[in-house]
Structures are given as C-alpha cells and as structure tokens.
Amino acid sequence: GDSRSPLVWEQQLETLLGSLPMELPLWVAALIAGSLGGAVGVFVSFPLDTLKTKAQTAEGEHRGLGAWATARRIFAQEGVSGFYVGVQGMMLGQAFIKASAFSVNDLVLSWDQGFAPPFVQLVVAAVLAGLVTSFLVCPIERVKVMRQAAGRGVYSNDLACAKAVVATDGVLGLFLRGLGATMIREGPSYGVYFVCYANL
Fold first, then answer.
1. Rounded distance, CA 69 to CA 188, Å?
2. pLDDT digits over 154-189, tens only?
3. Which whole-number Å values give the CA distances from 9 to 42, 59, 91, 128, in the listed order?
4. What's the rounded Cα separation, in Å, for the pair 198 and 131?
5. How far is CA 104 from CA 20, 72, 114, in A?
6. pTM summary value
C-alpha cells in the first residue's frame, strides 16, 4: 500500500485542486483536500486501529494477547471485514472533522490580527481548530470504538450504535462523555499538525 502520510496526501490533493482549470478559492481547496485526505488516512490506518481497540478491550481468555495473536483471532472470527467494522462512518466523520478543522483554522487566521507574532497566531488558530473539532471527534470516536470492540454483527450500523449509547447515557452522554480528555488531546495535536502543514 501507499506509505505516504495523510498530511502529505492533503498537501498533494490541495495542489491538484489548485491546478484545476476552474478557479477555486484557496480555503475551498484546503477544505476539500483536508476532507479527502482525512478519509483516506482513516481507511489506510483502520485495521491497526481496530487491532489496538480489540487488544485494549479484550476480556477473559483473550485478555493480554499480543498484536499478532489478536489479529489472527479477528481474522478467524470475522474475516478481513472484521478489521473494517465501522470504517464507513469513521471515514465520513473524519471528512467532516478535517473540513471543520481547516475551516476554523483558516477563519481564525483571516481575522484582523496583530495581537502576537505570526508563529504564535498560527499556533493559536491551530489549537482553536482542535478544540472546536473535539465536539465532533468525541461522539464519532465513541461510536467507532464501541463498534470495533463489539465486532461484526452486534450493531447493524453506526446509527444503531449511537442509539444504543443514547439509550444508556442520554444525548449529552454521547456528545460530552470524554470531551475534556478529547480536547486536551486534540488541541495540542492540531497545534503541531497545522504548524507542520503551514511550513512544509
């Protein structure tokens, strides 16, 4: 498979979109590139993400199994598709997440600035993008983890899984449970992400 990182994919997609005959505003090209790059990144990395989730949530005789043993168990019980349970929803969700992150980042950078040096402004915009997108990341990732841990056949789709969460934790539980930790992770992560993006 292609070993290029999602960040490289997004930059190449943005370059391609910018070279098309039609005149696309830079922010539109960045938004589309971010969405497509995010979706591609999810698809490429999803089997390893599933493996991680299965290993972390394993119980009984499967607790403590190594990565290779866990992979063999998934394949034996669910086949290749077992590594991709919930991937469609996560790809779509990641497209929205990346589109939102690029939009917020570009919006903040477009404001009349001067409150800080350019590098600090870049970091502030990037961190704010991460904090805002956390409100999307939190419910999307919770559904993803639940579907991965449950395996194929437990939930018919992401909506059924989300309904199960709402039935036990309520709507606020779906959107807010784990939000604080998600913001602590996403803020600095996007700070590094967009700083690298702007300087590569």
1. 34
2. 898 999 999 999 999 999 999 999 999 999 999 999
3. 12, 37, 15, 23
4. 19
5. 25, 42, 18
6. 0.73
Enter the tokens of residue 50: 């599933």
DSSP code string of 74-142: HHHHH-GGGGGTTHHHHHHHHHHHHHHHHHHHHHHHHS---SS-HHHHHHHHHHHHHHHHHHHHHHHHH
Q: What is the mean pLDDT of residues 127-146?
A: 94
Cα 41 to Cα 95: distance, rounded to the nearest angstrom = 10
Which amino acid, 15? T
Burial 147-185 (b: 16+ CB within 10 A, else e): bbbeebeebeebeebbebbeeeeeeeebbebbbeebbee
Share of the chain above pLDDT 90, in %: 32
Q: Per the structure block, which two tokens stand in for 88?
A: 């469609």
143 vs 118: which has the higher pLDDT: 143
